[in-house]
Amino acid sequence: MYYDLDRKGHKVRVKTVACFWPLLAELATQDQASRLVEHLSRPQEFWRPHLVPTLSADHSKYHPQGNYWQGGVWAPTTYMVIKGLENYGYYDLAQKVAENHISNMAQVYAETGTIWENYAPERARPGNIAKPDFVGWSGLGPIALLVETILGLHLDAPQNVLRWRVSHLEEHGIEHLRFGDREVNLLAHRRANLQEPVAIEVETTKGFYLEVEAGARQNRIAVTTGQHTYRLGG
Q1: What is the per-residue burial (b if ≥16 Cβ within 10 Å, else e) of 92-112?
Q2: CA 205, CA 210: separation in Å to the nearest integer?
Q3: Distances (CA, A) of 24 to 21, 57, 101, 130, 165
Q4: Sites in the chain below the pLDDT cut of 50
Q5: Residue 17 contacts residue 52 (beta carbons within 8 Å)
Q6: Residue 195: what pLDDT?
Q7: pLDDT digits over 99-142, tens only?
Q8: Can the peptide bond before residue 52 be classed as cis, meaning omega within 30 degrees of 0?
Q9: How far apart are the first and last CA of the chain?
Q10: DSSP H helices in 131-216
Q11: C-alpha to C-alpha distances, 201 to 56, 97, 189, 220, nearest whole angstrom
Q12: pTM of the model
């Protein structure tokens, strides 16, 4: 586990969400990353009903309603954990965390009609100290995580490359995606299993390179302006 240091350089042996920053910074070895994943996956620590609490649940000051930084679920730290997992190839786990976070946010939104500064870790509700109408960083969940982690889209406008990790079986995609100076529509059709090839529809106002990971295969396509259908993977 990684720990903070006090002013004298001594380890503060408190397990917080900050212990996962080395994953985002890519400072951990692969073995160290796997140990951090073990901590993340333990229900007695960070694997709570709403992922990821800022304080480990086995700490005496952990608060089931969040109490701000005593267990509250915050968008910036959850985003940090997810992106750190992706850095080390834990894509499926990152997707589970993202889906959990957005699902809890959606349930709270349905009940309260707004987005909150932070959330409770033990059930779908706002943190007991949290501001409403707080789309700021809380927008990371329904916007960035939905696009990047759940849909699996990664945009590299300077290199003119759009990377898509197609990991869902149901029909899914995105419309009116702004990518550099172009607008792109993407649709992956339903398939029976991840080993089956997937049909992808692409519509763009300007050409770009599309890199698709589907099943065990990776494909790179020079997409031109207009509408196209590709059958990939398998």
Answers
A1: ebbbbbbebbbebbeebeeee
A2: 14
A3: 5, 22, 18, 26, 20
A4: none
A5: yes
A6: 86
A7: 999 999 999 999 999 999 999 999 999 999 999 999 999 999 99
A8: yes
A9: 39
A10: 135-138
A11: 44, 28, 8, 15
A12: 0.92
Confirm if 38 and 18 have CB atoms less than 8 A apart.
no
> From start to end of the chain, where are the E strands?
4-5, 11-12, 153-156, 161-166, 172-179, 182-188, 198-204, 208-214, 217-223, 226-232
| Cβ 221 vs Cβ 230: under 8 Å | yes
Q: What is the bridge-based pairing of β-strands 208-214 and 161-166?
A: parallel
The encoded tokens of residue 162 equal 């759009």
Residues 52/69, Cβ–Cβ less than 8 Å: no
DSSP-derived 3-state class of residue 175: strand
- pLDDT of the residue at 234: 62
Classify each residue of 191-229 as buried b or exposed e, where b means 16 or more C-beta atoms within 10 Å of its C-beta. Answer: beeeeeebbbebebeeebebebbbbeeeeebebeeeeee
User: Taking a C-beta distance cutoff of 8 angstroms, is the pair 184, 161 a contact?
Assistant: no
Query: Exposed, middle or buried, 13 (CB in 10 Å: 0-12/13-18/19+)?
Result: exposed
187, two tokens? 């649709």
| Rounded Cα distance, 6 and 14, in Å | 12
